[in-house]
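Saturday, quiet lab. Running sequence design on the structure tokens for the scaffold JK sent over.
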């Protein structure tokens, strides 16, 4: 560090002393003022709390007296003239309640008939005290002065047949217990703050607030009955803080202390502040020395690395002498994170590219698969061979689906249901069951779809699970041999599936319970969930399940599903936009077989020109990726804006890709009819 730099640093530190000292003085003064306000706030809150405690204590004494008078039957004894009994009972009350100095029974004429007193009060003074009590007051307690100073009293009227009371139970509250609470707080405050604290407690009367508890050193000239509800007063070097609870019969508490000793320890606080300032100045000086001596090397290395990073060099800092420097280590850690982020970004981009390629492959392969599946329907060949071709087509389609699923973007969910040709997804299950039960001699499993080729909106895996469970149930109902036949038919806008067996059948009482959750029949270890799951799933899809059985002859489990919107309908019109000639051939053959009028277009321009005069409710099927960069999604939006109501995206992509268009349906490349 040069001499000029050292002089500059010294000048800066010395010039900083003046504003720091001024700031310290302001802070010290503010802290003292805050301390005064805090002391006043504490005393005011304590005064309010003590006043409330006294008022509530006297109110509780009134409630206790009323309850004891009722429980002890003072009114009944008074009506019978049993004053000795009353006095004995009042003595028991006084013995168990130390907060009463005396308890007496006063008749309706104001005469004391029975009494119990302790040593703090003269029994002969009770008549004079009772004469000073206002028994017509609705206030729960009073302070009565009958020559010995204000005494707190409470009374409870005794019920009588007429409206006027039969007398009163009068309780004189021990004033010493009230004064003890103030004395204990004053002693605690003096021990805590090292300041003598005086107190005065007064009750509100017609002539103002009258004291009933006061410490010897309290200056009585300070309080005034005309003061506000709460506040402070400074007079003759003393600060008085007061607060009140209640209004007409309120209790006010005053605390008084020397004004000059309001905040103790101010001098000590000043020394603490100045010592802290000196320590702060020393710490700043040492910090400056440390920075100038040890950080110049690491600072230079950091600046050099920033320049290298701007040129693309993200190697770690390896300057000799900076090993272990926290800033250099932080910079090296930051460089490592940047490199790791770049690597993660590169892998993410690579996965995104693979996902896009997988989606494209899965999309493009569906058109030839749909054509191959449609061609297999028209070939003259045995049913087993046709089923084999359909199974192979389905297997390739499943591979495409798995590929698409593997590279699906995070957060995307696959489509739950799509339109499927039911025969094409039933045949693989039947073939699987034939292999599964090949060792069952005499068992025959057949699938029949006479003149029916329906399609429906289903979840493929769930549908195949239902078929598999029904076939398993039918096989388990057989004996050593038997026959199981699965039939697929269509009519009246619905697809019908029946699974028949010639087993032992089901009794009517058991049949009525099947399909409920947990109900099973004739299966070791059965849970009853298979039929329940099938029934509830078919209901969600808009279908229903039914079981019929004749004991000794067999069982038929049948269910129905609504056909897809265009499936199974004849003499209707459908619009197709796809640039793949193979798709056109496939759909044209299927439309011809189903008796559907197909209007097929190969480009958006042809569609735009050919849609003139087409009804707005005609089903329209669009390919997603068209030639020349055209998007089926944009065309779908345009048709929707024009008022077309039945628009479906015929694509290899899942419906989650189009979730932002709730009015758009999504299906595969297979014809829906």
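Result came back. Writing it out in full:
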């Amino acid at each position: 560090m040069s001499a000029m730099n050292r002089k500059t640093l010294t000048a800066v530190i010395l010039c900083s002393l003046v504003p720091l000292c001024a700031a310290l003085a302001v802070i010290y003064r503010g802290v003292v003022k805050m301390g005064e306000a805090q002391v006043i706030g504490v005393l005011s809150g304590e005064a309010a709390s003590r006043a409330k405690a006294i008022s509530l204590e006297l109110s509780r004494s009134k409630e206790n007296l009323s309850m004891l008078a009722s429980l002890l039957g003072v009114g009944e004894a008074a009506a019978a003239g049993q004053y000795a009994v009353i006095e004995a009972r009042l003595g028991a009350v006084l013995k168990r309640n130390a907060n009463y100095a005396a308890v007496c029974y006063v008749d309706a004429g104001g005469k004391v008939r029975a009494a119990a007193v302790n040593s703090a009060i003269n029994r002969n003074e009770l008549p004079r005290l009772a004469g000073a009590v206002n028994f017509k007051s609705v206030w729960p307690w009073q302070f009565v002065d009958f020559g010995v100073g204000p005494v707190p009293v409470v009374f409870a009227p005794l019920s009588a047949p007429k409206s006027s009371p039969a007398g009163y139970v009068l309780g004189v509250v021990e004033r010493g217990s009230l004064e003890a609470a103030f004395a204990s707080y004053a002693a605690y405050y003096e021990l805590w703050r090292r300041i003598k604290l005086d107190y005065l407690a007064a009750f509100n009367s017609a002539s103002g607030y009258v004291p009933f508890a006061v410490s010897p050193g309290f200056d009585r000239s300070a309080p005034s009955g005309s003061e506000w509800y709460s506040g402070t007063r400074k007079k003759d070097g003393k600060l008085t803080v007061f607060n009140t609870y209640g209004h007409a019969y309120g209790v006010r508490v005053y605390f008084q202390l020397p004004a000059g000793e309001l905040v103790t320890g101010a001098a000590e606080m000043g020394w603490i502040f100045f010592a802290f300032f000196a320590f702060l100045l020393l710490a700043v000086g040492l910090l400056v020395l440390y920075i100038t001596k040890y950080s110049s090397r690491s600072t230079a290395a950091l600046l050099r690395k920033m320049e290298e990073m701007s040129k693309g060099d993200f190697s770690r800092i390896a300057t000799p002498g900076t090993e272990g420097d926290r800033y250099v280590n932080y910079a090296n850690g930051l460089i490592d994170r940047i490199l790791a982020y770049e690597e993660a970004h590169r892998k993410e981009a690579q996965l995104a590219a693979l996902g896009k390629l997988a989606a494209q492959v899965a999309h493009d392969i569906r058109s030839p698969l749909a054509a191959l599946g449609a061609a297999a329907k028209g070939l003259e060949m045995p049913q087993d061979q046709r089923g084999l071709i359909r199974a192979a087509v389905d297997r390739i389609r499943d591979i495409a689906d798995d590929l698409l699923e593997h590279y699906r973007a995070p957060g995307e969910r696959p489509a739950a249901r799509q339109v499927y040709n039911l025969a094409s997804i039933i045949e693989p299950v039947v073939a699987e069951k034939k292999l599964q039960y090949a060792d069952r001699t005499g068992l025959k499993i057949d699938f029949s779809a006479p003149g029916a080729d329906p399609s429906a909106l289903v979840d493929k895996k769930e549908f195949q699970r239902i078929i598999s469970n029904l076939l398993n149930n039918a096989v388990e109902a057989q004996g050593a041999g038997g026959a199981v036949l699965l039939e697929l038919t269509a009519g009246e806008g619905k697809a019908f599936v029946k699974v028949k067996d010639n087993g032992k059948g089901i009794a009517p009482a058991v049949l009525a319970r099947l399909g409920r959750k947990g109900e099973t029949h004739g299966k070791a270890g059965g849970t009853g969930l298979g039929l329940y799951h099938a029934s509830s799933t078919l209901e969600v899809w808009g279908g229903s399940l039914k079981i019929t059985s004749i004991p000794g002859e067999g069982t038929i489990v049948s269910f129905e599903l609504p056909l897809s919107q265009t499936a199974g309908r004849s003499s209707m019109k459908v619009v197709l936009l796809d640039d793949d000639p193979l798709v056109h051939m496939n759909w044209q053959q299927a439309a011809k077989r189903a008796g559907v009028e197909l209007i097929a277009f190969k480009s958006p321009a042809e569609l735009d020109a050919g849609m003139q005069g087409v009804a707005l409710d005609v089903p329209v099927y669009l390919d997603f990726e068209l030639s020349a960069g055209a998007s089926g999604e944009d065309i779908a939006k345009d048709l929707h804006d024009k008022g077309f109501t039945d628009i479906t995206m015929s694509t290899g992509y899942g419906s989650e890709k189009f979730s932002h268009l709730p009015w758009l349906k999504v299906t595969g490349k297979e014809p829906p009819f």
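Notes for JK: The mean pLDDT is 79. The CA atoms of residues 324 and 330 lie 10 Å apart. Ask whether to fix the surface positions before the next round.
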